Amino acid sequence: MKGSLLVVLAAGVLVSNAAMANADLAKAKNCLACHSVANKVVGPAFKDVAAKYAGQKDAEDKLTQKVLKGGSGVWGAVPMPANAQVNEAEARTLVKWVLSQK
Fold first, then answer.
1. What is the pTM of this model?
2. What domains can you pick out in the chain, each with its CATH number?
3. What angle separates helix 88-99 from helix 59-69, to the nearest 10 degrees?
4. For residue 38, with 0-12 CB atoms within 10 Å meaning exposed, 13-18 middle and 19 or more buried, which class applies?
5. Model confidence over 62-85: pLDDT tens digits?
6. C-alpha angle 101/98/93, rounded to 5°?
């Protein structure tokens, strides 16, 4: 019983640290200049992005390309610029984190 509890606690810490690391990546890559987790800023809230793309099989690939190349028209008239400071692996990590928001 004690061993099981330790495994569950350790897994929770790892998941929590991964989530925090991705929030730190979003901050480091200036995502939070235009977005927040819960509220619309210039761009949509990450939880709204997650809700809009929930269940879409191609969401991760589609949003990774939007992070890298930018886009417009999906969330209104303000375009999202391309993010030259983000590589593809970082973009995919950020998108997975965004899509996990509730």
1. 0.79
2. 2-99 (1.10.760.10)
3. 130
4. exposed
5. 999 999 999 999 999 999 999 999
6. 130
